Amino acid sequence: MQFRQLIRQLFVLISDSLFPISEYNVENYFPHDGSFSDSKHQMIVFMRYTGIQKYILLLFAALLFQNHLSAQSPKKTISFKDSLDGKFDVSDYVIYAHGFIPIPLIITEPALGGFGLAMIPIFLNRSTPYIDTIKGKVKITPVAPNITGGIVGYTVNNTWMLAGFRSGTLIKSRIKYMIGGGYFNVNMSFYRNIGQEGEKELAFNIKTIPGIVQGIKRIGYSHWYAGVKYMYLHTDVSYKGDKQWSQYVDSLESKSNVSQPGLVVELDNRDNIFTPNSGMKLHFDANWSDDFFGSDYNFGRFNYYTYLYKTFAKKFVGGLRIDGQQTAGEPPFFMLPYIDMRGIPAMRYQGKADLITELEMRWDFKQRWSLMLFSGTGKAFDEWKYFGESDWITSYGTGFRYLLARKFKLRAGVDVAKGPENWAYYIVFGSNWVK
Predict the structure, then answer these.
(1) How many Cβ atoms from other residues are within 10 Å of residue 38's Cβ?
(2) 299-312 and 279-289: which strand pairing?
(3) What distances in angstroms separate CA 233 from CA 139, 322, 337, one per listed residue?
(4) Which helix (H) or strand (E) holds 255?
């Protein structure tokens, strides 16, 4: 989704969720000349506050600002014009770039002030491909490159972050792994009903030291993946809002640890990881935090979602998102599910469960240019028996896309969206729906 979701999902995304490539159709994403290997799921909750997982796609934004082609191959002249239509295109630069790539970012998350800057330095090392024999035929499948990088960022509401990550693939065992950690100082408002006073905005500062590790293994030669992950989160929460409400939030201020192992199952057969035109992604993960694991909270967290894409009449692409989260036990307030859609600030509407659906339509009215229309609605509630009584929270908007990298089918652009309260804007690289 827009640049929200440095929380929704650290660095499982880098190898398997940000870049969730189905091996059977990897040729749809990368050239056949072997010059570039293909580069996955939920960033941990602290990342959802700021939306970093979307920002990793801004690898391509750096291409717009770099004038020195230090990564250029000596045997290949790199051009920013496409070989087919002569239009501006960064495909060749990406294909023939090696090593260090600095990625400048613009943070547009409304809950973090609506504007910020970040830098993600990335080091890429190509991996050897999978070589399988299927019914007597040799199948060579490109493998995502090993990625080592960092993140540093700052927003206008004095939120800042510093993190590092590593992702790669164990070729012989067909296991994709990820490890990451960092420090996040997040200033964010939460909303609660206070007796007869009604709903009030409560400003908090959340200092967190997260760590996450994940391993996902391909099941046979299919599009299915399964694996395990573990998240650790040390958090220091302090109230920074209006002092007249301090008595209602004293219990929320704390220093605590969350220790949470989990299981992941996923199917992904989309034709394109950046801007899909067809296919689906089906995901489920279950996580449990308990004092047995060294956690200060006993609770479960379950996440399930489906993204469907279908092309109509060649120039129209429709998308459907169904997304839900459920908690059990007593999670900390900053890890409660929330409605996550364009036009709605992160954490604005929370509950112990949520359910969201979105529709999106893209019209490719020219080879390079597209118009977007989208709308969604969702509910956040504490128990399913109160689902009917909960309010529907709706947003809608429009935007445009430009085919920035034809060989990768990557489109980029800007969306504007209206939620129940305010308008918001989002700089978009690839799909808005990324977990």
Answers:
(1) 21
(2) antiparallel
(3) 41, 28, 17
(4) strand 254-268
Query: Which strand (E) or helix (H) includes residue 95?
Result: helix 91-96
- Which amino acid would we find at residue 371? L
* pLDDT at 272 > cutoff 70: yes
- Specify the pLDDT at position 48: 42
Distance in angstroms (rounded) separating the CA atoms of residues 56 and 150: 10
C-beta of residue 133 within 8 angstroms of C-beta of residue 159: no
Tens of pLDDT, residues 229-253? 999 999 999 999 888 888 888 888 8
- The DSSP code for 242 is -
Rg of the chain over Cα atoms, rounded to whole angstroms, equals 21
Domains and CATH numbers, the chain: 12-429 (2.40.160.50)
pLDDT confidence of residue 196: 79
What is each CA distance from 268 to 3, 218, 314, in whole angstroms? Answer: 22, 11, 22
Kindly provide the b/e burial profile for residues 234-264, where b requires at least 16 CB atoms within 10 angstroms of the residue's own CB: bbebebebeeebeebbeebeeeebbbbebeb
> What's the confidence (pLDDT) of residue 69?
39
With beta carbons less than 8 A apart as the criterion, state whether 378 and 393 touch: yes
| Residue whose tokens read 């929704």 | 8
3-state secondary structure of 73: coil
pTM for this model (two decimals): 0.77
Q: Which two tokens stand for residue 46?
A: 């602290």
Rounded Cα distance, 427 and 52, in Å? 13
User: Which DSSP helix (H) or strand (E) runs through 225?
Assistant: strand 224-239
Q: What is the mean pLDDT of the chain?
A: 81
Residue 198 in this model has a pLDDT that exceeds 80 = yes
Could you please report the per-residue DSSP string of 134-198? Answer: ETTEEEEE--PPEEEEEEEEEETTS-EEEEEEEEEEETTTTEEEEEEEEEEEEEEEEEEE-GGG-
**Of all helices (H) and strands (E), which one includes residue 63?**
helix 62-65
**CB-based contact 193:186 (threshold 8 Å):** no
Amino acid at 86: G
Instruction: Let me know: does 72 contact 78? Beta carbons within 8 Å.
Output: yes
Is the sign of the CA dihedral 128, 263, 340, 194 positive or negative? Answer: negative
Q: 434: pLDDT confidence band, cut at 50, 70 and 90?
A: confident
State both tokens at 59: 């690898």
The confidence band for 209, taking pLDDT boundaries of 50, 70 and 90, is very high
Q: What pLDDT score does 220 carry?
A: 86
Quote the tokens at residue 88. Answer: 């501006």
